[in-house]
Amino acid sequence: DSEAAGEIEPTARRPRGRPAGSRNKPKPPVVCTREFPDVLRPIILEIGDGNDVVEAISRFAWRRQRGFCVLAAAGAVSDVTLRQFAGAGDGHGHGRGFLTLRGRFVILSLSAVFLPPPAPPIATNLSVILGDSQGQTVGGNVAGALIASGTVILTTASFANVAYEKLQVKEEEE
Description:
Layout: H1 2-6, E1 41-47, H2 53-64, E2 67-74, E3 76-84, E4 97-114, E5 125-131, E6 137-148, E7 152-159, H3 169-173
Antiparallel strand pairs: 1-7, 2-4, 2-7, 3-4, 3-6, 4-5, 5-6
Organism: Genlisea aurea
Keywords: DNA-binding, Transcription, Transcription regulation
Protein name: PPC domain-containing protein
């Protein structure tokens, strides 16, 4: 009797939000099936014990007719000659001193650019910072061989169709 006297039955509520199954469907990934020759392409290079790191990269770049830049390096080297710019020459840092290192050194940093012809040879450069077993560091541009002492791993990026532009800032200002 009390049910009929005043209690109201609850009404069915509509659910909030989107109806079931109406969510955005995941989109398939975009896959490029064509390789573009002008883009940077990552390449890992492994250089074995006793090999010259500079010569190995140079030959690889020359055979492929592509430019390469070294992004990171890991390993150790020995017997290296560095060209250092500070501390030699006329006292103002305008000169070059050469430092030949014998022994085993860990690569702390290595940066390099190898450009194929017609870029001039001066556009190719390899500089390195090395650490010895006592924690001393030394660095400079490599002026000769850089002999791997164990395996050296280089993370590089290769590129083709290099546009080499010689900028003349002084002429443009006038």
